[in-house]
Design a protein that fits this description.
This protein is an alpha/beta fold and 341 residues long. It folds into two domains: 103 residues, MurE/MurF, N-terminal domain (Udp-n-acetylmuramoylalanyl-d-glutamate--2,6- Diaminopimelate Ligase, Chain: A, domain 1, 3-Layer(aba) Sandwich), CATH 3.40.1390.10; 147 residues, UDP N-Acetylglucosamine Acyltransferase, domain 1, CATH 2.160.10.10. The chain is built from five helices and 39 strands. The longest helix is centred in the C-terminal third of the chain and has 16 residues. The model has no long low-confidence stretch (mean pLDDT 94).
Amino acid sequence: MNFRAFEISKKINGNLIGSPNTIVRSTSNIEKTKLDSICYLDDKKYIFLLLEGKVISSVVIIQKNIEEKSSLESEEILKKNKEIKCIIYVTDAKKSFNIILKLFSKQNKKFQIDKKSSISKTVVLGKNINIGAFSFIDDNCKIDEYVYIFPNCFIGKNVVIKKNTIIYPGVKIYDNSVINENCIIHAGCVIGSDGFGFINRQENNIKIPHLGKVSIGKNVEIGANTCIDRGKTHSDCTLIDDGVKIDNLVQIGHNVKIGMNTVIAGCTGIAGSTTIGKNCLIGGKVAISNHIKIADNIKIAGNSGVTKSFLKEGIELQGPIAFEKKLFQKSYINFKKKGKK
């Protein structure tokens, strides 16, 4: 997939200087550029690469006012970097480059239903959908338009998948799950599996059946091999709200509720019936106990263990038994001092 510089400049509302018909065939990092690519500069510490003529991308996006004009004159840049044919100035280089990455990621996908897929006669299919080979869709599902399902996926009974959602290979979606529009579910995810529930009686662990569902909001992305358990009873629902971003290898227990735009890094585990607020940031390898509440806008540092509720909004937590980050760091300093005595 190729683009011309003027097309890119128009997409990102940039100020183009140089040859508008320069062809861009790929993207690259400012520290490791390649021919016929586009890169971006939004950090002063990489200015030297342009000033020393070390950039070979065809097009460079530069953030306006990143440095005094005297050191980043476009004519000087083009003179020192022979392969650069065009510069595009923008107000937010990182955001603009992200738009370009999305342009390149939109491959020419063919929407078709593979003959080797298996689809129940009671499934309702929208227009322009893709269902890959060996994918199975059970009774009474509803798949909206422009849904793209890769090969080897399993979709259970009564599942709803709304428009523009991508389901990557090997995803398993159990009965009654709902996935709203513009979601991305990466390879190996399991959505709607039984929660981890047992009754211990007379030295026996008796399994608790799980009959609820999972509901995933709009614009949610779920990383590879993440597992989201369904609710316990018919009236229970594990809820992932709009805009949530979940990394790879995350475990979310039954009846959990995660608020809008919360971000969760890899290898985190959230035990059952916990509620997490909106706009939270949860680092990697965090363990969160069951039946607790985390307020909106809370940040939890990686490797922390959250064992109780935190209802004050906007605080930062850290520690193996987490409490407020500033107090934890002071306590850690005192702990180290005592250890030296």
